[in-house]
Amino acid sequence: MPFQNITGNKFGQAGIPTSVAVLYTVPPNTRSYLKDIDIANNTPGDIKVTVYLVPAGVSSPDPLSNVLVPNVTVPHYGQYQWTGTQIIADGDTIQMVASAIGCTINASGGEAV
Predict the structure, then answer these.
(1) What is the pTM of this model?
(2) Among 25, 34, 42, which residue's Cα sits nearest to residue 80?
(3) Strands 31-41 and 79-88: what pairing?
(4) Residue 35: what pLDDT?
(5) Distance of CA 74 to CAs 39, 58, 106, Å?
(6) Strand pairing partners for 13?
(7) Which pLDDT belongs to residue 63?
(8) Where are the beta strands (DSSP E) in 1-113?
(9) Which residues does residue 104 pair with via DSSP β-bridges, in sequence order?
(10) CA distance 11 to 4
(11) 20 to 30 A Cα–Cα from 91, which one of 10, 27, 28, 83?
């Protein structure tokens, strides 16, 4: 099936928990293009964050094959930015986890239907 219409989209904005959580799930019959991830740390301590791209039908990320942002240190009162292009298919998820509470994530890109 060809994908003709691409619409810019914010995939999620949330606090990053200390256990793995889903930020975004690609809707049915859609292909998404992840373009940017911004992570901000609003605490006086450094926090490690991992972001995963997990295939449809898989509930837990595999740290050996699903990592996009690998355990990066977001400095105290600092920011980390990932920019690129990742195509994610319907049912795939963006998942995240942090070593401590205090980071927020914003992810954006486009959806093709």
Answers:
(1) 0.93
(2) 42
(3) antiparallel
(4) 97
(5) 8, 27, 14
(6) 106
(7) 86
(8) 6-15, 21-25, 31-41, 47-54, 67-74, 79-88, 93-98, 103-112
(9) 15, 40
(10) 20
(11) 83
What are 19's two structure tokens? 């256990």
Distance CA 50, CA 69 (A): 5
What the block records as the tokens of 3 is: 């994908």
b/e per residue, 43-76, with b = 16+ CB within 10 A? eeeebebbbbbbeeeeeebeeeebebbeeeebee
What's the CA gap between 5 and 1, in Å, rounded?
12
Answer whether 43's CB lies under 8 Å from 77's CB: yes
Cβ-in-10-Å burial (0-12, 13-18, 19+) of 35 comes to middle
Identity of residue 85:
T
Tokens at residue 6, please?
Answer: 């691409």
Number of Cβ within 10 Å of residue 109's Cβ equals: 21
- pLDDT tens, N- to C-terminus, the chain (113 residues): 565 688 899 999 999 999 999 999 999 999 999 999 999 999 999 999 999 999 999 988 998 899 999 999 999 999 999 999 999 999 999 999 999 999 999 999 999 98
